[in-house]
Amino acid sequence: MASHRKPRTTGQLVAGLRTSPAVGFTAAALTSVALMSQTATAAPAEPKPSLEEVQKKVDDLYRQAGVATQKYNAAQERTDEQRKHVDGLLDDVAKRTEKLNEARRELGSFAAAQYRTGGVSDTATLLLAEDPQEYFDQSQLMSRLTNRQKEAVDDYQTQQIETTKKREEATESLASLTESQADLKASKQDVQQKLSEARELLSELTAEEKARLAAIEKAKEEEARRKAEELARRQAEEERQRQEAQAEQEQAEQEQAEQEQAEQEAATGSGTGTGSDSGSTGSSSYATMAAKVIDFAEAQIGKPYVWGATGPESYDCSGLTQAAWKTAGVSLPRTTWDQVKVGTTVSVDNAEPGDLVFFYDDISHVGIYIGNGEMIHAPKPGANVRVESIYYMPIHSVVRPA
């Protein structure tokens, strides 16, 4: 007997509906196509930066850290000055407050004396008055006070006014100090962020990339050294020509003096035989100061760069130049931006030992010129004070501080 059951459909369920095998295959195919389409339109991964790009980024970050360091130095200097000012004001307020209390105690003694003699009200009210002078004007108490009491009242009023002014000044200075401290904190965080980014970029390099980067750095140093040698040759030639010209001038002056002496002897019929002695002026005062500066800087070679440091164990670039010139009796400002304004600007070719060489358009770095196209400077975090070609970085200007 034939079965009356309907054959079971072999289709798939799609979204709650039963479909045929053909429809299921079509849905799967569409899904596959959609996925392939999404994959094809997805944004491609960013290419890894080249080693040269990494080096430029790291150099830029170090330079930005140098700028932030100078901002930190400026904020630190401003904060130190304001802190000293605030401390002075607070000490002054404390002294004035003590004087005010002494004046108040003296007035109190007068009030107590009047109380014992039955004359309490006026002086007692005086001690509670906001403006003692106004009270006297209204009550005519001054006419009943002795000269000593009047002097005490005047002194009290003066001390009260001056103390109030100093307290207001101290409050304003404290607010300014708080603002400077906030700037200091922001600059510090900026330095740390730039240095952290630079270290992170370097840490991602492979051993091979680090070796290639070292080779690029070495080539950069060699090129800077070659330019320094060229400058040294030019300066040596200029010095030779200067000395020859000076010798010729001295010889001409000597011959002229001898001729004048001979003419004088012929006219008088006598000879003195003194001749002429131009002598030597010796080294200039600047050269003497520069020698002290360079001696100090050479003694710091090998000490670490630490941003914000002024010695004696570590330095940043402007901290080193400031400390070096201090040994020669010259007080330089703290930041490169202020140091570049001190003294006389000279050309690179005319640079002399002791001069300050500033770098980058933003004047964020400085070194001490020692001759032959070289300088002593505190380079950057992770490096020590060292001798290096002035052409290692783009030169902004050369300044003679004294």
TrEMBL record:
Bias (Basic and acidic residues): 227-245
Residues in the signal sequence: 1-42
Segments for region (Disordered): 151-176, 227-284
Entry keywords, A to Z: Coiled coil, Hydrolase, Protease, Signal, Thiol protease
Superkingdom of origin organism: Bacteria
GO terms for MF: cysteine-type peptidase activity
SUPFAM superfamilies (alphabetical): Cysteine proteinases
GO BP terms: proteolysis
Record's compositionally biased regions (Acidic residues): 250-263
PROSITE patterns assigned to the protein according to its UniProt record, in alphabetical order: NLPC_P60
UniProt feature coiled coil, ranges: 51-106
Span of domain NlpC/P60: 287-402
Entry-linked InterPro entries: NLP_P60_dom (IPR000064), Papain-like_cys_pep_sf (IPR038765), PG_Endopeptidase_C40 (IPR051794)
Entry similarity comment: Belongs to the peptidase C40 family.
Protein name: C40 family peptidase
Phylogenetic lineage: Bacteria, Bacillati, Actinomycetota, Actinomycetes, Kitasatosporales
